[in-house]
Each structure stands twice: as C-alpha cells, then as structure tokens.
Write a structure and sequence with these properties.
Layout: H1 2-25, H2 32-116, E1 119-123, E2 129-133, E3 136-140, H3 144-155, H4 159-172, H5 178-189, H6 193-207
Antiparallel strand pairs: 1-2, 2-3
Helix pairs in contact: 1-2, 3-4, 4-5, 5-6
C-alpha cells in the first residue's frame, strides 16, 4: 500500500512536468499528435489524482476499523479483568467463611467431647471460670484482672481502649460473655450501631 502511494505521487508530479517540458520544446510546432499526447497525459494525471485520493480514504477507513477492533479488545480485556477480580474476591470470602465454619465445628466438637466426659464450664460476670468434672468443681480466677481493667476503662469513658481490650478477651475466651456486652457498649458510644447489634447477636448465640 505504501509503495503504491509513492508511485502514484511520483506520477502526479512527473506528468505535469512532462507537459511543461513538451510545451517548452514544441511551443511553435503544435501538431495533432502532440495535442493527442497532451490530452492523454492530462487524463492520466486526473486518474492518478483520483486513485491517490481513493487510496488515502481507503487507508483512513482501514485505520478506523482497526481502531474500533482494538477498542473492542480493550473493553473485552477490561471486562475479563473485572470478572477475575470479582472471582478472586468471592474466593477470598468463601475461604473466610470456610475457616469460620471449621472453627465452629471445632468448638462444637470440643463441647461434645466435654459433655461425653461430664465436663461443663461456666463463666460469671466478673470472669470467674467454674469447671465441673465428674461432680467436682474447680474455679479459675485468672480473668478477674482483665475484668477490673475493662471496668476501669468503662468508668473512665476510654471507649477505644476498652474496645481493643474486649476484642482480645473475646479472642482468648470466646465463652465469656462480659467482653461482648462491654464491646457493644463501646461501639454504641463510638456511634457504631451495626457492630453493637453484631455483638448482641454473638452474645445471644454464645448463651444458647
């Protein structure tokens, strides 16, 4: 295509030059044959101009089609990337849910094993842990210091620090309900009503 355009351009430049040269050499000898040749040279010049215009238009048309196809490919690529990101997000959420279900299953299995051995565990409000094994009761008071610290933070209205401490106690002792209640109160004072409702629901499930 480029070679054809170059040849056409050369012809467009050469034909008028040929006519001018012939006019200069034969200005006093205009014959019928000369006029015939000049006429065909002009026709060729016009045809070459039309062909060159067509080639320029055709190249622009092909470029527009190619650009449109490239845009479609780019849009398709963007859609594929977006779908891939959505799949990765769904997979991550599925993995989190699966781990949560495994943890629940493990806790239930522990409770079943304890029940089979006649072991029961209860926490009071202040964190005293009462464990019954075969009719024998033992009391663990190691959580009293944590309770006193949470109570002090609540009294001082240090809600953010109280929330962090409650989170740690929930992770270490999920069966103790007091941190859930104090965390819900901290969220309420911090304006997080949704998280407060979540802690209430967690507390209700733990007490069942």
């Amino acid at each position: 295509m480029t070679v054809l355009k170059v040849v056409t351009t050369v012809l467009l430049m050469a034909l008028p030059a040929v006519l001018l040269y012939r006019d200069w050499r034969h200005h006093d000898r205009r014959t019928k044959s000369y006029r015939h040749i000049s006429r065909w040279c002009l026709v060729g010049c016009v045809a070459a101009g039309l062909l060159s215009s067509f080639l320029v238009w055709y190249e622009a048309y092909q470029a527009s089609i190619l650009s449109s196809r490239i845009d479609e490919l780019v849009r398709g690529k963007d859609q594929i990337v977006q779908q891939n990101e959505e799949l990765l997000s769904q997979n991550a959420q599925f993995q989190e849910d699966l781990l949560a279900e495994k943890e629940k299953t493990r806790q239930l299995q522990l409770e079943i094993n304890k029940s089979k051995r006649g072991i029961t565990t209860h926490y009071d409000f202040q964190g005293n842990k009462r464990t019954t094994v075969g009719g024998r009761i033992s009391i663990d008071t190691s959580l009293r210091s944590a309770f006193r610290e949470m109570a002090s933070l609540q009294h001082q209205h240090r809600w953010q620090d109280l929330l962090k401490l409650c989170e740690r106690n929930i992770q270490s002792d999920p069966e103790w309900l007091t941190p859930y209640m104090l965390a819900a109160a901290a969220h309420a004072h911090l304006g997080r009503v949704t998280r407060r409702s979540t802690y209430r629901a967690s507390r209700a499930r733990s007490s069942c």
